[in-house]
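Entry 14. Ran structure prediction on the chain below.
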Amino acid sequence: MELKGEVMELLESGDVADLERLVRQDRRALRHLVGRLWDADEQVRRRAAGALGVAAEAHPDLALEVARRLVWALNDESTTNGVHGLVALGEMGHRNPTLLAPLIGPIASRVWDAGLRPAIVRAMCRIAERAPDLVWPQRELLERWRDAASSAELDRLARVLDARTGGGE
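Output, structure tokens:
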């Protein structure tokens, strides 16, 4: 079976262990995962995002290029086209926080966009679970854009940051 078909079969079947093994063994799988971030099936999108998190550990050089492209997609004229990439960025940052460190500010800076805001806050929360010190400097910017759509996510992020940083000070 060709690699693309194998990746898709693993994503659809939910065989996360084999998918992770494939991603660790064959860096070419990343290309096929990125395309699945926009799949019609939410489970396929989530599994692809999780596998990209594994790739951030296994292939940081290639994963950094993927992460940069996903951040760039947020700058598209229709920025909500990049919304599905935020789940992957959160997973990548959770698995390899150092990799995403230079991209945290650019991701957070898009919080003004109501279509992206909830996904940005969820990605920041996922990263903060592992590396709160990377997200802490963005807390005021994120809080400034609190609205009904992001209030619960921001409350969760504040709890994660407080628990991990001892209040941040």
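Residues 42-58 form the longest helix (17 residues). Will compare against last week's run tomorrow.
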